[in-house]
């Protein structure tokens, strides 16, 4: 089997003024990403995603990959990550290269699944669970005054019992937001907080101490992702679980987090970390230090599908039957037609459960007419 065509499809959805999504660092209005569509001489179409703006993924794909991908056998998928570290030499591990590798890798696995008639999780080592627990990413900062509890109330009403909220703008504000979330969620639900790297270690430590009595399942990016010494410092100064990884690309960066257990949970984004092949390597590295894995998802429906296939294949190490916490997948609750409209059948997280697709490959069908509404080229 050979890849006969490969096309990068840049997509963007702009949120209207006043409806930007806020984290501790500010507001964003742009939901841009890139899909990759490949076709093979066996008649299969495969989809992947590079979670970077379309003009960058197009240029990166065309200058570094297009020539070698046309004619490639998709079964050689794992060679993509290996090649990316040596060719291009010195910058193969960068976000733009690894994101394009991610798209290619996911699209190849989609095609392999279709060729052999199996869902990707079976090809990654087998299904370990039939459903996954989606956690709702919600309670973003808003540009206009709105009741802060509204979005988390809607998530809980929809059946979510695991929720992640944005904090990170000051110790007292953090406590108010966490208190609100815990009141809505109740005592039993899992509550995660995301500081989006907006603190120095001393500030993060102070805030963590101030919210620790609300039973926080993890604190995400308490300090900037590149501040490895900051994570080490927080390790020593706090005892709330830490999580990071959405801004890491490839196994070597993840190894820095995993070595010495600087975090409790690594969060590879399937459309940036190098794809399913590299995520599997990262998960194996994590297991060597008994670090948890929970994919970060802020992607289109394609990246979400890849995260679900990946998470469904994760072993429950070190647990056998008595798994104290379920494997979760992030489910962003904000408006994003690139997640919902481009799939013939969008994923349904209501009831606090996500079914793992059992059809071949990613197990999704793309509505190509819907793509045209968000294409930027
Ligand atoms: Mg985050």
UniProtKB/TrEMBL annotation:
<dbReference type="InterPro" id="IPR036849">
    <property type="entry name" value="Enolase-like_C_sf"/>
</dbReference>
<dbReference type="InterPro" id="IPR018110">
    <property type="entry name" value="Mandel_Rmase/mucon_lact_enz_CS"/>
</dbReference>
<dbReference type="InterPro" id="IPR013342">
    <property type="entry name" value="Mandelate_racemase_C"/>
</dbReference>
<dbReference type="InterPro" id="IPR013341">
    <property type="entry name" value="Mandelate_racemase_N_dom"/>
</dbReference>
<feature type="domain" description="Mandelate racemase/muconate lactonizing enzyme C-terminal">
    <location>
        <begin position="145"/>
        <end position="241"/>
    </location>
</feature>
<dbReference type="InterPro" id="IPR029017">
    <property type="entry name" value="Enolase-like_N"/>
</dbReference>
<dbReference type="Pfam" id="PF13378">
    <property type="entry name" value="MR_MLE_C"/>
</dbReference>
<dbReference type="InterPro" id="IPR034593">
    <property type="entry name" value="DgoD-like"/>
</dbReference>
<dbReference type="InterPro" id="IPR029065">
    <property type="entry name" value="Enolase_C-like"/>
</dbReference>
<protein>
    <submittedName>
        <fullName>Mandelate racemase/muconate lactonizing enzyme family protein</fullName>
    </submittedName>
</protein>
<dbReference type="Pfam" id="PF02746">
    <property type="entry name" value="MR_MLE_N"/>
</dbReference>
